Amino acid sequence: MKFNNRNVFISPNAIIGNNVKIGDNSTIYDNVSIGDNAIIANDCIIGEPTNDYYFNPNYINPPTTIGANALIRSHSIIYADCTIGHTFQTGHRVTIREKTVFGSNCRVGTQTDIQGHSIFGHHCWLHSNVFIAQKSSIGNFVFIYPYVVFTDDRTPPSNIGNGPTIDDYSQIAACSILLPGVKIGKHCLIGAGSTVSKDVDDYQLVLGSPAKMVKDSREIKSNETGESHYPWPYRFDRGMPWEGIGFENWKKEENTHE
User: Measured between alpha carbons, how far is 112 from 103 in angstroms, rounded to an integer?
Assistant: First the structure.
């Protein structure tokens, strides 16, 4: 993609880092800060005003922060009042509503819709066509696969919303539905097509609709080796901070730096 500077609007109240590339037809609104070496592709909007903009004549756009080395692909919209950590990537046509917080090294796939007021840890990977309801909380190293839906209202329509909570290292497989307020522990696997209506303890494999506990996730065997696959960080390192050094060594280094 060439950056031709055609029809680009950058607010004078935005802060743009060094070596930032912004594609054609993109808009950077007031009070946006974009870190060094970020790429904002064609037809993107960063700092989209919140709903209050349309009704409040004294509206001031809340701060929006995009960390260094981001890659925001075409037709993505990130609303104002979001905080995005460094090395963030999106697919195409992603929507991230206001009051969303991402840690570092997260990825959000094409046509994913994040409804805002949610928190994501570090190294979260969301695949394509994921829907995240408001007031969801996602830990570190959580993978959410295509067509997963998080919900936030047990008795719609109501004024009470509370999205799911996912703890570190858990995996939510394709086409699963998580009902409002459910809590999923660490190192869990939610099997494809599951409907989760109850809390899930650490290290559980749950499957079905409604989802039921099948076994301890540490009993799941690798198709390639026949060995236990969970906890998965000992078996998978592509794109992870322990790539090439092993999960155990990485943990030791992390403890040294704390």
Answer: 17
Q: What is the pLDDT of residues 9-54, one digit of tens each?
A: 999 999 999 999 999 999 999 999 999 999 999 999 999 999 999 9
Q: 149 and 131 in contact (C-beta within 8 Å)?
A: yes
Please give the order of strands across the beta sheet that includes 95-96: 9-10, 27-28, 45-48, 77-79, 95-96, 113-114, 131-132, 149-150, 177-178, 195-196
Contact 143, 160 (CB under 8 A): no
| Stretch 145-151: mean pLDDT | 98
Domain 9-221 indexed as CATH 2.160.10.10: yes
* Cα separation, 238 vs 88, whole angstroms: 16
Instruction: Parse the chain into domains and list their residue ranges.
Output: 9-221, 222-258
Confidence band for 2, pLDDT divided at 50, 70 and 90: low
Tokens of 114: 């994040």
The pair of three-digit structure tokens given for residue 207, joined into one six-digit string = 């499957």
Taking the C-alpha atoms of 166, 171, 174 and 179 in order, what is their torsion angle to the nearest 10 degrees?
Answer: -20
